């Protein structure tokens, strides 16, 4: 049957994808493992699309050609279509898991080493340091350069739909890793302003590389940055209670973020009722 044939193909592609792991060292070279991996990835995506088209076409044909089927025969046809749908899901799941594997083995290590440079900068700058950081944002420039390098390698080889999914996964990973380093630093008011500019710049970058907006990947991070930019603890309380945003941070996390501001009174933060 069609479903059995596609299931066999899915198993074969899974084997190639498992064997064709790409490491960070091989991301920029024409290794056979990389080529096999990407070819299998694109084929899985194409297979899922073909199966979806086949299922929809057959469903439409069945409804037009077999109008007097018994309930028993009708259930048989539905079962056949359901098998195709199950196989499509296998291919789609394989694409997703393979992209996550690609992120973990070949992409995230390179990005994380650059993101970790965030901690090399001061985040409690003086007025003079603030002016210098405002004029030249070295950290964002470095991160964007690495992102461009990584994304352009795969943009040339991946199907558009696979590449779009890849962008979402990478953007989510960058947001998570950025939040970790941000929460490992301390800030004054000027440091919060610099951070706000940096995150806005990165959000703008993602808008330029994607045909749709990936800002939701940075929603939690944006809330962290907003809290690090309040004038006072009272302002933080007012912002929390008045905003129409759906808060992604718990009250405990909000207090932990505010505690990173060295110029906000610790007692006021601890007594804050949210």
TrEMBL record:
GO cellular component terms, semicolon-separated: Golgi transport complex
List, for all copies, the residue spans of the domain called Conserved oligomeric Golgi complex subunit 4 C-terminal. Answer: 37-256
- A UniProt-annotated Pfam family: COG4_C
Could you state one GO biological process linked to this protein? retrograde vesicle-mediated transport, Golgi to endoplasmic reticulum
What's the protein here called?
Conserved oligomeric Golgi complex subunit 4
């Amino acid at each position: 049957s069609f479903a059995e044939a596609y299931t066999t193909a899915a198993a074969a592609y899974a084997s190639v994808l498992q064997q064709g792991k790409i490491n960070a060292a091989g991301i920029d070279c024409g290794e056979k493992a990389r080529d096999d991996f990407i070819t299998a990835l694109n084929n899985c995506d194409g297979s899922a699309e073909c199966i979806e088209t086949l299922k929809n076409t057959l469903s439409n044909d069945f409804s037009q050609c077999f109008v007097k089927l018994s309930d028993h025969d009708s259930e048989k046809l539905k079962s056949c279509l359901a098998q195709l749908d199950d196989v499509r899901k296998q291919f789609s799941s394989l694409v997703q898991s393979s992209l996550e594997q690609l992120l973990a083995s070949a992409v995230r290590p390179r990005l994380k080493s650059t993101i970790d440079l965030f901690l090399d900068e001061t985040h409690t700058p003086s007025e003079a340091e603030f002016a210098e950081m405002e004029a030249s944002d070295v950290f964002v420039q470095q991160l964007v350069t690495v992102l461009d390098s990584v994304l352009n390698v795969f943009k040339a080889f991946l199907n558009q739909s696979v590449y779009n999914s890849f962008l979402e996964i990478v953007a989510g990973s960058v947001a998570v890793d950025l939040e970790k380093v941000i929460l490992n630093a301390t800030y004054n008011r000027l440091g919060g302003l610099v951070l706000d500019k940096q995150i806005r710049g990165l959000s703008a970058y993602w808008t330029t590389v994607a045909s749709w907006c990936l800002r939701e990947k940075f929603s939690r991070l944006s809330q962290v940055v907003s809290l690090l930019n309040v004038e006072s603890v009272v302002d933080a309380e007012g912002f929390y209670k008045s905003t129409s945003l759906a808060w992604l941070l718990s009250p405990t996390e909000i207090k932990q973020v505010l505690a990173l501001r060295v110029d906000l009174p610790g007692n006021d933060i601890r007594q804050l009722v949210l």
